[in-house]
Structure formats: structure tokens, C-alpha cells
Amino acid sequence: MTFCQIARYLVGGGTGVLLCVLTFSFASQNNATATQSPSASTGQFVDITQQLGINFQYQASHTTRKYLPETMGAGVALFDYDNDGRLDIFFVNGAPLSDPTPKGTIPQKTGPKYWNRLFHQKTDGTFEDVTEKAGLQGAGYGMGVAVGDYDNDGYEDLYVTAYGGNKLYHNNGDGTFSDVTEKAGVGGSGWSTSAEWVDLDGDGYLDLVVLRYVDWDFDEVWCGEHKEGYRAYCHPDYFKAIRPLVYHNNGDGTFTEVAEKLGLAKPGKGLGLASADYDRDGHIDLFIANDSMAEFMYHNKGNGSFEEVGLPAGTAVDVDGRTYAGMGVDFADYNNDGWPDLVVTDLANQRYALYQNNGDGSFTYASMTTGISRMTLMHSGWGVRFLDFDNDGWKDLLIAQGHDLDTIELTSPGIHYREPLLLARNTGKEFVDVSANSGAVFQKAWVARGLAIGDLDNDGWVDAVVTTNDGPAYVLRNKFQSSNHWLTLKLVGHQSNRDGIGAEVKLVTAGGAQFVTVTTASSYLSASDKRAHFGLGKDEIAKEIQVRWPSGIVQTLKDIRANQILQVDERVAKPRW
Amino acid sequence: MSIPLGLSLLAVWFCFSGHSFAQGQDDFARGLSEFRAGNYSAAERLFSDAEEASPGTTDALLYEGKCLIDLRNFPAAEKALRQYVARHLDSYDALYLLGFVLNRENRPSESLDLYTKAARLRTPTGDDLKIVGLDYVLLNDYADAVRWLEKSVELDSRNKEAWYYLGRAYYTQSRLPDASKAFQTVLKLAPNDSKAENNLGLIFESQAQPEAAAEAYRKAIAWQEQGEHPSEQPYLNLGNLLLEQDQMAEAAKTLETAVRLAPSNSLCRLKLGTAYLRAGNLNDARRELEKSVQLAPDDPAGHYQLGRLYKQMNQMKKAKEEFDQTAELQSRAASSKPQ
């Protein structure tokens, strides 16, 4: 079975036969803008961390020296490592820091308290800690995580970033992972943050992009006021920008660093990373959220190289032409016009940046006109994802919030270190802050950082996991009550990379079209469920689904019934894997 | 009988000295009269003459300093007051004034030293503490600024300037409800104070109440039109708000007024140029944006908007130059922070 879809997880009973119509044609442009009339609704997310048996606590090891890494972590991944159809959770953890820590130190984990953690989801929906069995305790002061099947063997592999060197863990397919960093040559150096698996050259193998934050060491630098309790984390302007690492997958388990060769070596202060083909030229582009400098938009020229076009594209700065503290990012089509848009989180008094794709290679800063500006002005955001929490056909926004300075309230009492999450509902015309009425979790103030989304219980309603700095992680179940329908697609590449990362999916219902680019990346330091999720509103049938694979193959499915998780295999005459 | 030469010289000296002393007293008295009448230039000259005629015999230097403060000639005021303080070490009046002058000269640490010395001689007034608060503002220490400005209004609850600055300090600290209360107090003390109303507009904007913000800006504009020197600020704020709301025509009209009031304000030009650009009025946009860049060549935002304009005008080479300049200036700004 290589090219037909399989309804693996039918929801709501029944085992109806699915129509399976596969064609090869280039998608025609569809400019429909709405699938359903929006109705007033709020979210309903519930903290079910305890019930699920999740008990992860991120160790930031805060010191009196205010070492910058302390306030930045960490990430979380939602992925199905054992292919049992249920999402598992991987948390990145820190390491102990001495106070002071000598310059040149590479912190190391010293015991279970500092281990990264893998939680396996059992058949009853609860989780068990399988870290030791999996061999994923990790090393170093962890930051982010990227998920991708880099060797196309059908099992998701893990790349964990850290301060002082990163780790690649190959999934052995038997519940264990092997540290293959050295053989693969992807250890890197410096302070790595977000990373992404994406096939940059279309050879079917996932390459690896690794952001680095700043050129940093355990130096004794005092920032903030010289008063008891006022010492603060230094602004990134105090440190030099540093170029990212870009590893080309050689297809034999080894990688070659090619940032310079690909034109991706511009020094930045990268925290957030996302990809989409923003100009729909058939080549995946990259966006890097930089902290307190211009954001980077790397246009894939299709000849094996990239060009940074943030300023002319209108995505480098805010509406006033000012830089801001870019942190988390997502790259998705929120207005259903077929063109991927961007959201970038930043610090209080800056307003999160929403860039609407004009379809001509440029973007319009749309925070003001969409309601994002007014709801985010006083907030500081990190992990961010577009997700259709109410399955109405419009992608909403879920954002992890909290300032980076634990001293911020001493100097700016109106800004808060701990903040509730933000849920912004997309009405089809604007975003509306529905946090206040979307569950008790939105009343809790956290120092939130990482955010991953995915359908943990395969019920068609997208859930979320949030990490907090030096605090617990939270699993949030989406318990939204509605008769809205949904469809989730699990893509399996057979010429393209097996994860289907970079594939563009267009789904058409009676109400209009929606578009999703398959990715495990975006957000901040985190990796999300790779499956493409669509809310269908009142439509019970997706009239047409077009998948444009990274290989260039375009595959069309007709009249797909809602409320199922559907596997779509790339149709090729001779599957490579 | 002849008078010895020495005695004669002494007599002459006494004669002239007596004349100078009298002259000094006279100049000083006349200076006081001018000073009280608010004729500071005339008074300053008389106090200067008095001091020259009879150094140290009057408070001419102190009053000369006061005149020079009113004439906003702070370096000269500092010189006069320092001379006076050197002779009158216990003059709290001179110390407070000198502290004030140093505040105005953007030397907050020295100013605070003088206020500390003065406070040992006389309990500071609400007005003195207002300046102490402003010294901390200059030092970018808003926590202490608020502390002293709060004490200032505690001592003198009718000091509208202190309330205004307290409101500004709260606003900078993002303490929006407190800032709002402070500006409301200013408005109680001085109804139709356009600066306070303009700041209320900023608070409404920060609180995501654009309609209320626009109303406040419009009120501030209406109120200040009754005055002699209308400020560009409420026009700039209103114009920017309208720009954000995509109301290009009204934004441009409002910003045109801001530019008329402050033709050398690069931000007004930048916003007006941006409004024209977004409205598709490219020629006017070009004029304003080029002027803005001319006024503030180191502001990357101006070059960025100019780059966007040139791009829209299909002048890609010039657009690239402006974007490159933007990147260069952004990079320079980021690396110029103190280590």
C-alpha cells in the first residue's frame, strides 16, 4: 500500500469505505477565503498533566549571576516515536550551573533531575516515563528539539539542541535511540536554540537547520541596576550575532555543514525558525526570528542557494520600521487565501508581528488591522502556533507567554514575568482574545516558553503542551464542545522525505479552501505533531484534497469523509522507501 | 602744607570705592525691581553690573543666576551660582538652584549631589523633590523617579507639573492605571491641560482602547488650539493611530498639521510619508520620506520606508541602497550598546 489513503483511526464509529481518487495535476489557484461562517465561541483547554502521569520539571538552575541561558529554555516535542498511532512527549531539560560558573564551562547533566524526558503514551491515554529505556537522558544544558525521520526508515529521530553542543538521536525502531552525533557530524558548537528538519534541496532527505542565539560564554557581566535584587539578564545587544548551522543530509547517515555554501550564513540572534514556500515557486523558504535585530526571510532561489530578503519582503521589522525581540514564529495561511502568513512573538511594548502574505513576494504588517496588536501590546510571547482549536476552518493562535526578565516588575510593574497563555480566535475577519473564557489554565500565570501542538487523543481536537522556565510542563487537552467536523492527514513520502515535511496540502470544502504546509517545526524550541489538521466546520466532506509533495508530485483526493485521521502515501511508481 | 602722596591716593581710593559700593547697591536694588517685574534681561544686566561694581557685597550673583535660569541660559546661570556658592557655602537657596540648573544641563548625578547638600540645610519642598525625581528620570532609574515624584506630590498635592511627570514615569513603567490617575489629577488642577489629555490618549492606546485614545487626542488638539504654541504631539499621536487603523486620508490630513507645526520633526515627516505611501500617493510620500531621512539620517526606520517607496516606484537600485542602509544602521545601533 503505497499510494492510497488508509483511515487508521476512525472516530465516531463506522468503517466506511473511503473514496480514493488519485490524480497527477498541478493545483489551480483557489482564492476562496472562508469555509464556514464564524460563530461566537471560546476555547476549552483543560490542564490534564497530573491525570496523564506527566511530572516533568525543567531545571533552569537560576544563579545570582543571571546567565542568559537560564531564562531562555526550553522546548518540547510531540511525536509518535514507536508508530503506535499515539503521540508521545519529549521534554528538554537543563543542567546544573555553579554560581559563579567559570568561563568556558560546558554544563553537564549530573543526575536524573536534569535528564531530558521521554513519556510514552499508553493505550489508555496515560503516559509512562521511558527515558532510560529509550536512552534519551541527554547531556548538556538543553534548549530545543527537532523531530524528523532523517534516514527515511519510518521512525522519527530526535535532534536536541543545547548550550555547548547538540545531540542527534537515531530512533532504532525498538523503543530505543542511539546517539549518532559524532558519526553524523552534527554536534555543532556555541549556543543552539531552535532547529528544524526540512529538505532544502529536494533530494528526499531531510536536512537540518540549527539556529544559534548569540556568541556567548560564562563571562561576568553585570546588567541592570547595581542594586540588591535588580541584577538582570543582559540584553542581546551585549553579545555578538552568530551564524546558524545548516547540515546537508548526505543520505548515508552523515551530514555536511553548508550554511555558507547555501547563502544561509548571515549572523543572527536566532530563536525561532519556520518554513513555508511563501512565494509558491515550488521551493521551501525559511524564516528566522531574531532577537532585537532584523528578522530574516531566506528565499530559496531554487538553484541550491538562498537569499535573505527580509527587508524588501517587509518581514524584517515592524510597521514602523523598527526591530523587535523576535522569539517564536509560525508560518501558515491564517486567512485561507493560499499564501502562507507569518506570526512572530516578541516582548511587551512591541506587539506580536503578524505579516499577511500579499501573494507577490511581499508581506503587509497586519497586527494593527487584525486585532493582534491591541491584544499583545503588554505581553511577551515565546512558543506560538496557528491551530484551529474549534475546527471552524480558521486557524487560531495559541501563544506561550511570560517575560524574560525575572526582575521586570521592579522596573516596569505593569509588565509581568509570569503571564497566562493567550488564545486568539480567528473569526475570519480578525483575531479576538478569547483567553479569559477558555478555561482555568488561561487564568494561571506561568513563565511559559516552549509550545507544541498535536492531537494527543486522536479525537480531532488539537491539544497542546507548554513548558515553563524552571517550572513544570503542562499538558492541555482541548475539550471544545462543538459539532464541527475535522480531518487530519498523515502524509508518508515515498520519493519525498518520509515525513512529508514541506508538502503543501490544499483542502477544499463547500465553504472554501484551506492550506497547510507539513512541518514539525515552528513555535519556539519545540516540535509539534507533523500531521496536517483541518477544521471543516459544518462540512462533513472534504470535496478535494491536493497534496503538493516536495518531490513536485501533486496528488488529488476527492470527497473525503470528515472526522478521521487519514494516511496519505505519496504516489510514485517505484517507492524509494 | 602739603599732603603726603600716600594719603592722597588712599583718599582717592576711598572715594571711588565708596562710589562703587553705592553704585553696586543701587544696581542691585534696581535689578530686584526689574526682576520682580519679570524683566529678566534687564535685571540680569543690573545684577551683573552690581556684582562688578561691588563684588560680594550683595546677592547679585544669586539673582543673576535666577534671571539666567528664567532666560534659559543655563551655562551662565551655573557660572554665576557656582561663584555665589563659593562665597556662601550655607546658602541652600543657591544649592537648590544650582541643582536645578544641572538637571536642566542633563547632569543628573551632579544635580543630585547638590540637592543632597541643600537638603541638609533646608527641608526640600515638593518642587525640589520634583527635580530630584526628574534627575532619576535622566538616570533612567524610574523606580527612584517614581519614589521621589510621589513624595513631591505628597508634599504638594497641587503641583501639577509634579503630577504630570509622575504620570510620565508611571507610563514608562507600564503602570497604566497609576499613570491615568496622575494625568486625571493634572486635569483636575488644570482643566484643559492638553499635554495631560494627550498622555491619557497614549494610555488608552496601550490599553487597547483606540476609540478612547482618538477622542483624547482630539480633545487635546481642541484645547491646545486656544493656546499660543500648539504642539505637534497630539496630531502626531492621532495621525499615527489613524495610520494604524488604515484611515489613510484622515491620517494624512492630521499628520500634515503635525508637519506644519514642527517642520523639523523627522518623525512627523516619516509618519506623513508613510501615510502617503500607504495611500499610494507616491510623489508626496517621496518628498516627506526624503525630508525625514535628511533630518534624521541615522534613523533606520526612515531609510526602510524610503526603500519600500522606491521599491513601489520600481526604482530597485535605490530601494536596495535604502534597505542596505537600513541594515547597516540597525547593525550599528545594536552594537553601540554599552558593554
By DSSP, the count of extended strands of chain A is: 39
Q: Strand content of the residues of chain B, in percent?
A: under 5%
Major sheet summary line of chain A: 5 strands, antiparallel
- The tally of helices of chain A reads 8
CATH topology of the domain at 34-123 in chain B: Serine Threonine Protein Phosphatase 5, Tetratricopeptide repeat
Number of E strands of chain B = 0
State the CATH architecture of the domain at 34-123 in chain B: Alpha Horseshoe
Helix-and-strand structural type of chain B: mainly alpha
Largest interface: A-B, 32 and 34 residues
Fraction of residues in H or I helices of chain B: over 70%
Overall shape of chain B: it is elongated
Rounded mean pLDDT of chain A is: 92
Radius of gyration of chain B from CA coordinates: 27 Å
User: Given the helix and strand composition of chain A, which structural class is it?
Assistant: mainly beta
Percent strand of chain A equals 25-35%
Describe the protein's architecture and organization.
- The complex is a heterodimer of chains A (577) and B (339).
- The longest helix of chain A has 5 residues, at 372-376.
- In chain A, the strands form ten sheets. In chain A, strands 17, 18, 19, 20 and 21 form a five-stranded antiparallel β-sheet that branches.
- Chain A has 577 residues and is mainly beta.
- Chain A has eight helices and 39 strands.
- In chain A, strand 23 and strand 24 form a beta hairpin.
- Chain A starts with 5 loop residues before the first strand and ends in an 8-residue tail after the last strand.
- With 339 residues, chain B is mainly α.
- Helix content of chain B is 79%, strand content 0%.
- Chain B has helices at residues 5-36, 40-53, 60-70, 74-87, 92-104, 108-121, 126-138, 142-155, 160-172, 176-189, 194-206, 210-224, 233-244, 248-261, 266-279, 282-295, 300-312, 316-335.
- In chain B, helix 9 (160-172) packs antiparallel against helix 10 (176-189).
- The A-B interface holds A 221, 225, 235, 237-238, 292-294, 311-312, 314, 317, 319-323, 348-349, 368-369, 373-375, 377-378, 410-415 and B 141-143, 172-176, 206, 208, 210, 244-246, 300-305, 307-308, 311, 319-320, 323, 326-327, 330-331, 334-335, 337, 339.
